[in-house]
Amino acid sequence: MSIWEYANPVKFIKTTDRMMPYLAVGAVVCLVSGLVWGFFFTPDDYRQGSTVKIIYLHVPAALMAINAWMMMLVASLVWIVRRHHVSALAARAAAPIGAVMTLIALATGAIWGQPMWGTWWVWDPRLTSFLILFLFYLGYMALWEAIENDDTAADLTSILCLVGSVFAVLSRYAVLFWNQGLHQGASLSLDKEEHVADVFSSPLYVCIAGFVLLFIALVFLRTQTEIRARRARALIARERLA
């Protein structure tokens, strides 16, 4: 079996239809258990108090904001090289989800940072690159809507995705590139001094799993919708020509 079989829209829809119920149930179980565990059964931090518990929303959302763009990059490259329409539609489907994740990360980061920094926003390298990434998401979606021809839109948005990937990488590694800024280092790190304590990291891993499963389920659902919408537009255009 080849992975390219799923470039067939019918095959893709049938396969993802079978997977989505399991993904949805898994996402709900992980999110509910992880958030309840994290918000109600973990202690307050000795420096940040109960504010630290926003980590269970902020960190998973930030990870998915970056990885959603990386998924779009891979799908866009597949479109450029192989010209598989499902890959282009999957990238388009992921964009609004990634934009929402980025917005959640920005909002929760501001809420988390305000008591620590005394301000809702600073032009920190990581925060700034994250804001630019959010603007790229908006530009990507706007470009899809502005161009009538789907193939042309897929070509141009794929190029935009390649450019925006720079800021997705910066969003992840800005703290390492620039040894300045108020943003803390990675919450989950191989460095024991940076890695959060196990009492916080265990429910955080569960929340991250929930966000990942939710993202995959939503991408599958939205990609199916994009395939059906494209098919409907093709039928309408054919009727007009007839």
List its salient traits.
single chain, 242 residues, mainly alpha, globular
Show the helix and strand layout.
Blueprint: H1 9-40, H2 55-82, H3 85-117, H4 125-146, H5 150-177, H6 198-241
Helix pairs in contact: 1-6, 2-3, 2-5, 2-6, 3-4, 3-6, 4-5
Can you describe what's shown?
The protein is mostly helical and 242 residues long. The protein has one domain (10-241). Helices cover 77% and strands 0% of the residues. It is built from six helices and no strands. It has helices at residues 9-40, 55-82, 85-117, 125-146, 150-177, 198-241. Helix 4 runs antiparallel to helix 5 (150-177). The longest helix has 44 residues, at 198-241. The protein is globular, with a radius of gyration of 20 Å. Mean pLDDT is 86; it is low at 189-193.
Brief overview:
The protein has 242 residues and is mainly alpha-helical.
Total strand segments: 0
Overall shape: globular
Rg estimate, integer Å: 20 Å
Mean pLDDT: 86
Secondary structural class: mainly alpha
Domains counted in the coordinates: how many? 1
